[in-house]
Write a structure and sequence with these properties.
Elements (H helix, E strand, L loop, with lengths): L9 E5 L5 H15 L4 H21 L8 E8 L2 E7 L20 H4 L5 H9 L2 E4 L5 E7 L2
Antiparallel strand pairs: 1-2, 2-3, 3-5, 4-5
Length: 142
């Protein structure tokens, strides 16, 4: 399959947690239409998307007046996926990914932080805005 570049940014507004599955499905369909991705890569994309989107519903009051905004595009051989919510955000400087130890039962079963750790490990790069209510994951497709 020839790798193509999407020239359109796709944008969705998610108002309910149940909408996550549909948006993830559309994104994966778009990615697979432009790139041959392995089942493992497809799983990783789903995991990153679900973790980042679930955090919005866990930490922010999402509704029809203040939905989660999702934008994505495939550029060359990377997926760029941005999630923005209406929340107050968090101090992104407090995250220390290097200290997170996946072999530690304490970290594996921690209440908070595991999702961001996984998203960070499976992404080429995670970028947060200064407020901490928007994150962009860049995921290599090959």
């Amino acid at each position: 399959m020839e790798n193509k570049v999407m020239d359109v940014v796709c944008r969705y507004m998610i108002k309910e947690k149940s909408d996550i599955r549909s948006v993830v499905g559309h994104l994966l369909e778009d990615v697979k239409n432009s790139h041959a991705v392995s089942e493992q890569k497809e799983f990783e994309i789903k995991l990153v998307m679900n973790e980042l989107l679930s955090n919005c519903f866990k930490y922010c009051k999402i509704n029809t007046e203040s939905p989660v905004i999702v934008e994505y595009m495939v550029e060359k051989k990377q997926l760029h996926f941005t999630v923005c919510d209406c929340g107050t955000g968090f101090n992104v400087r407090e995250i220390d990914y290097k200290k997170l130890d996946t072999t530690s039962d304490q970290q594996l079963f921690a209440e908070n932080g595991r999702g961001l750790f996984l998203a960070n490990q499976l992404s080429h790069k995670l970028r947060f805005n200064e407020k901490g209510n928007q994150v962009t994951a860049i995921i290599d497709l090959v």
